[in-house]
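haha ok so turns out i had the wrong file open the whole time. this is the CORRECT one, sorry everyone. sequence first:
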Amino acid sequence: MNIAQFHSFVGTAMLTPFRFMKPQVMVAIALLGLAPTPFTPTLSQAQTPPAETYQPGFWQPVGRFNPKEPVKVKLVNQTGVALDYDITTLESFNPDMIPSDGTQLLENFGDDAYIMVYPDDPESGSADQSYVLRFAVAVDPRTQSIPADNIATITITKAAPNIEQRFYGHRTINLQKTGAIYFY
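then structure:
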């Protein structure tokens, strides 16, 4: 039996139950896709997994929290100067200050937030005191998740701009409803 005869046999065998049906019923079955169709078995081999598509950049979250639990943010100021912060997504929140080398725990702000952090001293931007802020969040390196207590500890330090790496400083912490943490 060659391949053409095989296909003819399979096609006839598959249509045998339908030879006694009215043409209207056969059309309905065909339109609904319920009629069996002949197939050709093929062998498949295991394929290599798809290429790694991760590309580092500002569009990638720096960490993740559990969005099903209330999240807290612990700001750790290691700059040596006082910092102001504000949760811009809360109208009822007034800007506040983190003392030099102090910490501040933020909670009860919902499941998403934009937290702005900036130097308290308006003169800190002058040429002789110029610096930028760098944020870092403590995460599990395997999962990029914060600890199980759902407290994102964000350390704030002074940094210099790095033009080669296109780093010009951080000012905003963004917590999203999906559990992603971003720095801008």
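The chain has two helices and ten strands.
again sry for the mixup
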